[in-house]
Amino acid sequence: MVTNRSAPPGALAPVLVYPDVREAVAWLTAAFGFVETVRIGEGHRAQMSVAPGVGMVVAEARGEQQPPTPGAVTHVIKIRVDDVAAGLERALAQGATLLEELTERNYGELECLVADPAGHRWQLTQTLRDVAPEEWGGVTVTKGPVTDPVSDR
């Protein structure tokens, strides 16, 4: 895959709509440790990264692009962290709303769910142990590395 310094890294980059892009960038940096990598206009868009090869775009609300509304859940963004309790504490200190307490899942993850000030839902997850999907009722469909559909064209 050809890289482009003007585009987010990785094959998947969510675009999250916020009422105030600069406020969102500051909050995501303070609460989750995101780093702003590209700024497009003062309040139009920003590209952010949370780990090597993992990026997203923060976009301004305009026209059909609107931030979440109360009572409607359209997405949850999952962030893998080394210490979910510390991540939760950091997010809450920045004004996140706790939606689900720390919960140990039967698939080997410790998770919690918070909402940011604009209403986007963030699930923080920490791997506690490796668990085969079949141990909790899942099914392994693909074994081995997944191919890159962009470079396989």
Could you explain the architecture of this structure?
The chain is an alpha/beta fold and 153 residues long. It has two domains: 1-66, Roll (2,3-Dihydroxybiphenyl 1,2-Dioxygenase, domain 1); 68-138, Signal recognition particle alu RNA binding heterodimer, srp9/1 (2-Layer Sandwich). It has two helices and eight strands. It has helices spanning 21-32, 84-93, and strands spanning 15-18, 35-40, 45-51, 54-60, 76-80, 97-104, 109-115, 121-127. The strands form two sheets. Strands 1-4-3-2 form a four-stranded mixed sheet, with helices on one face. It has a four-stranded mixed sheet with strand order 5-8-7-6, with helices on one face. A hairpin with a 4-residue loop joins β2 (35-40) and β3. The longest helix is centred in the first third of the chain and has 12 residues, at 21-32. It starts with 14 loop residues before the first strand and ends in a 26-residue tail after the last strand.
